[in-house]
């Protein structure tokens, strides 16, 4: 509701009346006279400060937490303390700014003459190692190994259902090759698998042992390092002895129905351990395996510094395959581990610390053991 009333203020001689506008949401019972009185009082009131009387609020009417600030708030000082500067041409204080050179400590100079002198310190003769001379660089055989062992290079599996009575291999825990995982499922009765023994080259699976062949036939072969399992060092004599051992256990059915094959590489490089790149061999049936992290859970230590893996197919590597029934895989692995090369009364077990790869019927990796 809106009402307008006008009247001259009391005791005023002004010709302009006081206009009072009243706004209300609903009908107001205030009379017009009261509205004019309020308007005149408001117009004639002087602006002064009024100290209101404090009003105590009963505790029962407080519905929320209340705070009362009684102490005076701290004041932030804005003054800056400027250093006291002396006037120009003022006298100098001898105690603070004037020093006598005789009273100062002697300057310690850095002697850099040794930088301009040659290093004349040499080891005494007694400090020089008088032990064994450094080993000579090994000369590796990079020619074809087709005639390293007598032919034939392929022996089919015997038609026997005899299972191997040899103890299963349990020296280390196998490392599965993805997508396989441990424990492996039980194979079917007629499933065939094969162990790959490297002769020269790097197998295309992580943690698998590689191999080289020495050029000197009178040199001694070397098994892989037990900590790194990196490389088998073959000789032609050790290779022929190992092939004779495989033919013997095949003929006697010691590992069940065994088949053998010696696969000569299709490519021979002029440099040691050099392999064609995977891009050059695209479509050749290679099976490169990506690096993966697997909890071996008690397996022997894995190679500390992973070697550069040449992802080449098996046809470009010299290797031996031992075909067998899948139920005898661990027994055949133990037979290979037990073989030793005899040289001058010493027995060298080249496969004992090696990591071989178990393949399925399609030559795909299953485990490294």
Automatic annotation (TrEMBL):
Region entry Disordered: which residue ranges? 52-80, 151-170
Q: Enumerate composition-biased segments (Polar residues).
A: 156-170
Q: What is this protein called?
A: Uncharacterized protein
Protein's organism: Mycena alexandri
């Amino acid at each position: 509701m809106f009402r307008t009333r006008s009247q001259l203020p009391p005791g005023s001689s002004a010709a302009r009346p006081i206009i009072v506008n009243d706004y209300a949401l609903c009908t107001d019972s205030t009379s017009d006279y009261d509205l004019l009185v309020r308007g005149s009082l408001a117009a004639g009131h002087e602006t002064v400060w009024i100290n209101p009387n404090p009003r105590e609020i009963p505790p029962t009417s407080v519905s929320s937490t209340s705070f009362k600030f009684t102490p005076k708030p701290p004041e932030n000082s804005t003054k800056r303390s400027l250093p006291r500067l002396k006037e120009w041409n003022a006298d100098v204080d001898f105690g603070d700014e004037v020093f006598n050179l005789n009273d100062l400590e002697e300057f310690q100079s850095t002697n850099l003459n040794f930088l301009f002198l040659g290093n004349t310190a040499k080891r005494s003769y007694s400090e020089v190692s008088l032990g064994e001379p450094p080993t000579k660089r090994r000369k590796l055989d990079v020619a074809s190994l087709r005639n390293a062992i007598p032919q034939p290079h392929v022996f089919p599996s015997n038609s026997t259902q005899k299972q191997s009575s040899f103890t299963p291999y349990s020296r280390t825990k196998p490392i599965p090759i993805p997508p396989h995982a441990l424990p492996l499922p039980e194979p079917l009765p007629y499933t065939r698998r094969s162990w790959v023994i490297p002769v020269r080259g790097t197998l295309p699976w992580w943690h698998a042992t590689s191999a080289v062949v020495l050029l000197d036939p009178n040199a001694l072969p070397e098994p892989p390092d037990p900590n790194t399992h990196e490389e088998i060092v073959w000789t032609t004599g050790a290779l022929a002895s190992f092939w004779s051992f495989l033919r013997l256990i095949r003929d006697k059915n010691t590992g069940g129905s065994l088949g053998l094959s010696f696969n000569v590489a299709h490519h021979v490089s002029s440099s040691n351990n050099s392999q064609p790149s995977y891009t050059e061999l695209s479509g050749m049936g290679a099976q490169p395996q990506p690096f993966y992290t697997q909890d071996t859970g008690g397996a022997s230590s894995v190679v500390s510094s992973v070697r550069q893996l040449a992802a080449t197919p098996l046809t470009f590597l010299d290797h031996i395959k031992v075909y067998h029934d899948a139920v005898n895989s661990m027994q055949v692995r133990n037979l290979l581990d037990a073989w030793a090369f005899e040289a001058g009364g010493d027995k060298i077990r080249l496969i004992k610390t090696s990591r071989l790869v178990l393949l399925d019927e399609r030559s795909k990796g299953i485990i490294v053991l």
